[in-house]
Amino acid sequence: MSASDLSNSWCQVDHTHDPDLKSWVASANETGTDFPIQNLPLGMYRPMGSLIAFRPGVAIGDLVFDLIRAAEENVLSTDVAAIVRACEGEGLNPLMAAGASLRQALRHELVSALRADGEPGLAKRLAGALHPMDEVEMSLPCRINGYTDFYTGIHHATAVGKLFRPDNPLLPNYKWVPIGYHGRTSSIGVSGQSVRRPLGQTKAPDAETPTFGPSSRLDYELEVGALVSQGNELGEPFGIEDAERHLFGIVLLNDWSARDVQAWEYQPLGPFLAKNFASTISPWVVTSEALAPFRQAFKRQRSDPAPLPYLDGQANRQLGAIGIKLEVHLQTAAMRERGDQAVKLMQSNFADSYWTVAQMLTHHVSNGCNLQPGDLLGSGTQSGPDAGQGGSLLELTQGGKHAISLPNGEQRSFLQDGDSVSIVGFCEAAGRRRIGFGACVGTVLPSPVKPHKGD
């Protein structure tokens, strides 16, 4: 079965992906832009400094295109316009719940409205719907009711496992089960988030008792986040061949981690306060449709076990992987003060993930769990196979033993106050227009005042 055989589905490539397609928005045609007309990611915005409700918009070049204004100008069909209006002040959840057909209709109608060779006079009519990106404020793209973080990055799992179990880094279940844990939604923020260094309980290896204070081993985790479209009823799982229609789109995700707190608290129940103090996602959702040209075959080593039947399907084998190049950039407070640009620490690719998004979705509901529109599924840290491709400082510094040197002479074993971490992602393929996600940025603030210890 080829992509063309899977017509009207999540992997269909059509005229909206034509690499020669141009927009009357000039910045969308510039080489290297994250947001050409072939992308059209969705988000929630409002003019900077205003108090109006956040409105649905689309990123196009270096501008935001207001979808409600597009509805008012009658460039959207009746059903699409109604759903777009329902998103105002609510997030993209109504659009997510409407399903793939309406989302695809929105994409097609936007391409018709924004293409350079479209209806004469339309560009002038719609000019008032455009806002410079640096003059808007972004919110979370949707209401996130549930957050599950998986552990699909096998290179990360192996590298971290070697720190603690050199002879047997992967636990016996890793290649059989898409492992995950439920995280906290209230502390998820959008790019630009300031992250307060968390307080926590830690225990030094040679100490008799633990202590409480600021984390000294604060880290980032390079992840991809999948947002759910239509959910499923409680007790009614769906199969892997149906899983992709439940994917709305992809964001970048930084799942901040306090490694010293984590080491002390994670047994026997897993992550808790070391993880739930902050998670940051990028504001623009790159839809499943926009990602269609960058789908790849899902491959594993011949020596690896085949997935159990409920996690295996022909479509997933042929097109389940998504080629997203991922990078982490770091700018310290000293670099920012001198006007130095952030430095790239590593690069990896989401296509190397051990489990696909479809497998994560399928496993999540396999016990009857009900997903809801807007639920977030984190991929786990996405490291590459080679040295220097670690998706966290824990890996890049081998557990903090070997600090990395920055071009300005500073060194880092873990994050320091004032450090700004930027996660970048983009998709490239021969004969296709490059698309990107925009940056996912977070900056570390000093720890809050320590609690009063009493008399």
Rg is 22 Å
CATH class label of the largest domain: Alpha Beta
Rounded mean pLDDT score: 94
Which homologous superfamily in CATH is the superfamily of the largest domain? Fumarylacetoacetase-like, C-terminal domain
Q: Overall 3D geometry?
A: globular
The tally of structural domains comes to 2
CATH architecture grouping of the largest domain: Alpha-Beta Complex
**Unreliable sequence segments:** 1-8
| Alpha plus pi helix count | 12
Q: What is the number of E strands?
A: 27
Please identify the structural class as seen in this structure.
alpha+beta
Give the termini separation: 72 Å
Q: Strand percentage, roughly?
A: 15-25%
Describe this protein with a few key phrases:
eight-stranded mixed sheet; 455 residues; disordered N terminus; alpha+beta; 2 domains; 19% helix; six-stranded mixed sheet; Fumarylacetoacetate hydrolase, domain 2
